Amino acid sequence: MSTQFHQPETIPEALELLTQHGSDAKVIAGGTAVVLMIQQKLIAPPVLVSLAHIPELERIQTVGGEIRLGALARIRDVAQSSLIRDRLPMLAQACGEVGNIRVRNQATIGGNMAEADYASDPPAALLALDASVTVAGPDGTRSVPLSEFFLGFYTTALDEAEIITEIVIPTPPDGARMTYHKFKSRSSEDRPCVGVAALAVMDGETCSELRIAIGAASEVPVRLPTAEAMARGRVLDDSLIGEIADHAATKIDPLDDLRGSAWYRTQMIRVHVQRALLELRNEFSTL
Amino acid sequence: MTENKTLTLTINGETHAVQMTGVRTLLSVLRDDLGLVGAREGCGIGMCGACTVLVDGRAISSCLMFAQQAEGSQITTIEGLPEGDHLHPIQQAYLDHAAFQCSYCTPGFILSTVALLQEHPDANADAAREYLAGNLCRCGSYGNILQAVLASKTVKS
Ligand SMILES: Cc1cc2nc3c(=O)[nH]c(=O)nc-3n(C[C@H](O)[C@H](O)[C@H](O)COP(=O)(O)OP(=O)(O)OC[C@H]3O[C@@H](n4cnc5c(N)ncnc54)[C@H](O)[C@@H]3O)c2cc1C
Ligand code: FES
Ligand code: FES
Hints:
The complex is a heterodimer. By secondary structure, chain A is α+β, with helices and mostly antiparallel strands. Chain A folds into three domains: 47 residues, 2-Layer Sandwich (Uridine Diphospho-n-acetylenolpyruvylglucosamine Reductase, domain 2); 112 residues, Uridine Diphospho-n-acetylenolpyruvylglucosamine Reductase, domain 3 (2-Layer Sandwich), CATH 3.30.465.10; 109 residues, 2-Layer Sandwich (Enolase-like, domain 1). Chain A contains twelve helices and 15 strands. In chain A, strands 4-5-10-6-7 form a five-stranded antiparallel β-sheet. In chain A, strands 11, 12, 13, 14 and 15 form a five-stranded antiparallel β-sheet that branches. The radius of gyration of chain A is 19 Å and the shape is globular. The termini of chain A are far apart. The model of chain A has no long low-confidence stretch (mean pLDDT 96). By secondary structure, chain B is of the alpha+beta class. Chain B contains five helices and five strands; from the N terminus they run ββαβββαααα. Chain B has a five-stranded mixed β-sheet, sandwiched between helices. In chain B, strand 1 and strand 2 form a beta hairpin. The model of chain B has no long low-confidence stretch (mean pLDDT 95). The site of one FE2/S2 (inorganic) cluster has 10 residues of chain B, from loops.
């Protein structure tokens, strides 16, 4: 079968192609997932629409109080951006740990979101950062909070003829500390078995805000509002951190797969939530 | 419908026109159409680095990229490193340190080393280990590879 390869240079052109070809068309960004799926004959799209020649989609910038990542920003560029390292260190950490250097050089942040593979790193960090996804389609542009974007295994809120143009992250509160812990159970370049993203705002010893997101343990990454609430207004001492970690572990119904059984994942969630919170409390360097 | 298209690729500074139908990986086009067999298929899924080439100076897995995606970019393969009869200093360092046994992984390692030293001319052993962690050597020549990388730093052209 002969796949047509289109390389539009503007967003409207790309949307036009997607509308015209309907379910025959597939978007390709970095291609690390799409090429693999085509090579393995899991999909055979008659039409590929590449977003790689739309330069405006690659920008990483601040606009007003927001940090905006163009969907086509390479994962490695996000990890190395001084803006991201400075303002959103846990996102730099999560992106810096994706696969190997070649994957990070080629894969895009928008592709990582759209693929919605549960065993991914950036989604948990972005969820803890209250990110939203800007989506452009034939009927205009809409913004989808990340908490409503992932719907299940490889399933998102994107419609057929829509593309992600940006990922928008509100500037975190002043003095926020944050960290991402990637736990790998097999090799050093493996996808995560469990990913823990945590953000804390401290007022002296007292925690005024805590956010925890767990990735790679269930179908979609999840925030833990009840665990977060346990910390609010309280001194983040060792025993409270232990209680929060125990509670967090009960709040996920984990997957069983080659990277770990459900039981093992529960233990690893507890351990890594605890380590992440200790790190934030102790103000270790986050990079 | 089979539509024959001409793809123009710039490889090691030279322009190549390739007749293609549909989409094919850069690895397949390099090897099967252009006879540039230095890039090799190991895993075919982005994990081993045997197929590493540089696209605009960045190391990527040519098994994970369609040739169409590399159109308009500068592609560097292992064949592009020597100058005339002279091996590139990094190639020479790999030879000098016997940094291989079967050498299946070697072109990928050398190109990753080129990218590493381009980005971090002063890379130390830890930085080199981290950067090259995604290149696998089934013969386990890692010790000698690391020595070759560190030696390349001083002789780099
Ligand atoms: C060897 C290997 C190791 C990996 N390890 C990790 C890891 O440790 N952690 C991790 O998080 N990930 C890992 N990944 C996954 C990798 O991060 C994703 O494959 C990558 O981010 C996808 O981005 P892409 O630009 O290559 O997407 P593509 O392959 O181009 O596209 C992926 C999907 O998203 C769609 N799409 C892409 N861009 C858009 C857009 N802007 N709008 C709408 N739809 C879009 C495509 O249609 C397709 O369905 C690994 C992948 C490989 C091959
Ligand atoms: S063959 Fe491409 S990374 Fe292994
Ligand atoms: S020398 Fe044989 S795989 Fe590396």
